What does this fold into?
Amino acid sequence: MEDGRRDDDLFARLSPEGKEAAPVVYRHMTRRPTRAAVLRMAESLPYRAAGYVCGSFRKPISKCCGPDDEQP
Amino acid sequence: MNSPEPREPVFQLFACCIPVQGARRSVICDVQRQSFQFIPNGLYEILTGHAGRTVAEIQAAYEHEYDEEIEEYFDFLLRHEFGFWCDDPERFPPLDLTWQAPERITNAILDVDAGSEHDYAKILGELDGLRCKALEVRCFHGPSLGELRAILEPTQRGRLRSIDLLVGFHPELTLEALAALAVEQPRISSVIVHSAPERLRPPPSRAGVTFEYRTEVIGSPGCCGRVHPGYFVVNLETFAEAQRHNTCLNRKISVDARGEIKNCPSMARSFGNARETSLHAALAHRDFAALWEINKDRIEVCKDCEFRYICTDCRAYLQDGRDLYSKPSKCTYDPYTAEWLSSAERPAFAGQTKGECG
It folds into this structure.
């Protein structure tokens, strides 16, 4: 990348199709990333590496137990 | 080339923070951090109806009547890390909530009691053929360790990813014995022992398996269908699935304690007995998947509930047993008042006789 040229400028030069096709991380860069944005990006790494459709199953299969506070 | 006039920044929610409106209040579901936060419906309106507008534009839209509140709202959103200020919101599209799964069946329930005569190898082999990835084995009685091993033995060589065990207390089912079983059977992801003499919840094992001893008696499928925040699930898979599908029954198959193949063991309709009918044949029945598409947006009361995309539904126990689209009878939440009824106020569960749940 040319010195001084900002990522935004490069992104702006893409065609509408090119913007859609650009890698997600590139599309989702912002000029003023906050701490939260950086944290979110880091937290999403496992998803982006493995995909959201993963092997695990993450919801209750049945619901027989009461809330914890109902336990005598 | 002249650069365009700089724009006032606008607030952008992170794509994984999705607002859902309820009748009285709304929530922001954070499907990345697996949590949710209540917000007033006024803030929901700002986030959805005024998305892409600057604060000044939003304040002007409300004729400056709520300037202070609007600023407080954005402080709240920033403090909880739900979003950020940006100049180019078009670069942050919403998540695609299309739900797809390669498995014909994603999850299954296998009920067992003292009188069950299941052919475990046949049932579990057929589940494997359907690419089922998650199984819950519910033993309403207290199986011995040997019986539990015999049930699980055919799962050793399948493509199941996780097995949840809900078993009655038996003196052999000590924490050490169950921990050893989970090492032998690495697909076990959780073990709940019901009817235990005392409550115990040790920390998860090093492999992440959770163990819990509960004193409540879970003596029949009639205990199922409970709706409370402990069963809420805030993740992208469930949130996306909930947009168009039933969060309990979609891609589920069950075999009850007598071997009857059903959508759910609590339901009356059987699609054949597993001894004579294959799970594939039951699944091929034209009515088997009929309930899979009843999403929360089609269910009375639930469609106005802010929890509708994080709550797992129940179609077996309904407030109005004649209306397939009525609210789960075991849900005591009223979205119109935003209150949970206390146990004392909880109505009798329709379709469940007293004492059936133990």
In short: Residues 47 and 53 of chain A are 9 Å apart (CA to CA). The first helix of chain A runs from residue 7 to 12. Residues 1-5 of chain A have pLDDT under 50 and may be disordered.
